[in-house]
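Fold this sequence, please.
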Amino acid sequence: MTILPERLGSHDRGPSRKRGRTIRIEPAANNATPNGTVETVWNCWGSECDRPPMTHAPTHPMIQLALEKPSGKRYIAMAVIWELDFYSRPILDADQKKVWEILICESPTDSTTDWRSLFRYSEYCSNSEVNSITLNKALETAIAKAGQAPSRVRFFRQAMKNMIVKGCQDTGLPCALSHRTHALKDWLADRLETVYPNEPGYQATAQGSGVFMPPPAAQPLPDALLGQKWAFVALEASAFADLPEWSIDFGESFPLSMVDLAPDTPIPGLLIFSQRATAIAAWMSGLEMGFVRIEQQAKPSSLSMNRDEFPDRIVLETGIGDAWVLSNLPTAAQKTEGQTFEANKRSAHGVHFLAVQANPDEEKFAGFWLMRDRGDA
């Protein structure tokens, strides 16, 4: 899977099209022909699709997504979002009780933000102060220091859900469990190495994320939100430098500087085509978009000996504890593409994307989400 950037020139598709940078995204395939084109399968959409997949000929041109730089730049105006953690730390106080800490930081929601310069707030508290009242006071203090309240709060520890929800509600802030707490987790990892070991009472013990929860059972997408076609695709990491210039209706990203990636690292993605692209993207924008994963369904031996009845499938995780079946992967070729997608995710430290368009000729995205599967949920 590769990306081939080029300049529009004599092969421009029409006089009305603006000149700018076009990025070609190749569909995922195991083998490319010498001229760079691929033979790929466009897959029908949904977990219960009975139609055969549609196949392009080997000479079919690569999908073109025109990511232009028009004179009037179009940005997604993102509200301020905070990430929050309230949990014990590997520190004991004078009474040999665990010290707890509240961490609050702003979410980087675009690809250009200097995430290290965003708002941060930390506060230790004793074991006896672990309650929603303490959290409410800390949030009020953080709002005063930041000069503004966030539009909403994200957190990742399910074990602390009741207390965090109550503390946020008392402060008048909506909150939700989310996998999109990348700045918080990176900050916490840094504090585990550089801050807590220097505190009196530090105990060198493993610090987990709380109670382990198995992956959620995936449910089918609502019928009205089913797409028509999809494909595994990829972009080189360097291509995302222009992401703020792309025309996107709904979506969210983060700075790739948060992840140590070489410029030519392939970033895998899932591209969805549907005439209801705007409706699908709008629905997704109302969720805490987590990550896309390939799920291998276990075959219940007591029910069937036919593995084909339990195909791999594409699953979208949202929030923490919600998952949606985007499509089954019933054929061997599709299963291989799914495995390649996961392999490229691992090579990109979990970074990938999900994009929604009306059709392959569309020059904008109805939705585009840069994601990261950290594998630590």
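The first helix runs from residue 132 to 146. The chain is about 15% helix and 30% strand.
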